[in-house]
Amino acid sequence: xxxxxxxxxxxxxxxxxxxxxxxxxxxxxxxxxxxxxxxxxxxxxxxxxxxxxxxxxxxxxxxxxxxxxxxxxxxxxxxxxxxxxxxxxxxxxxxxxxxxxxxxxxxxxxxxxxxxxxxxxxxxxxxxxxxxxxxxxxxxxxxxxxxxxxxxxx
Length: 154
Description:
This protein has 154 residues and is mostly helical. Helix content is 44%, strand content 10%. The strands form 2 sheets. A two-stranded antiparallel ribbon has the order 1-2. The model has no long low-confidence stretch (mean pLDDT 86). This is Phage virion morphogenesis protein.
C-alpha cells in the first residue's frame, strides 16, 4: 500500500505545491468523497483492490428457528460496511483519510487483516480469511488523476 501512495504522491506532489491551500482543501474534499463512493461500490461488488474476488463465505447448514421454519441465509457479505454513512472521511489541505466508524471498525479490521475473532458473544473463535476492504485499485488512481487534472484545468 505504501508503494501505491508513493506513486500518487510523486505524480501529484509537484502539481499541488503550486495551488493555494484553500484550493487544495477543496480538491482533497472532492477526491475524498469520490474515493469513499468508489470504496463502497467495490465492497458491494465483493472485490479486493487488485480485482480478485473476496474469499467466499463458509457454507453453513440450514438453520431452523423455534417454529421449525428455515431462516433465510444472506449471500451478501458486509451489508452495513459498504454503506457510505459507515465510512469516516477526514480531509484537509495536506491529506485525505477514509476509515470506518467506531462501531464497525472492529469488524472491518478483523476481515481486512484476516484475524481471529469470536463469532458471537458466547460462541467459538473463528479464523477469518483476509478480505481487503480499503485500498487503491487502478480505477481509484485514475479517479485521483482525473480529479487533479480537472481541477487544475478550471
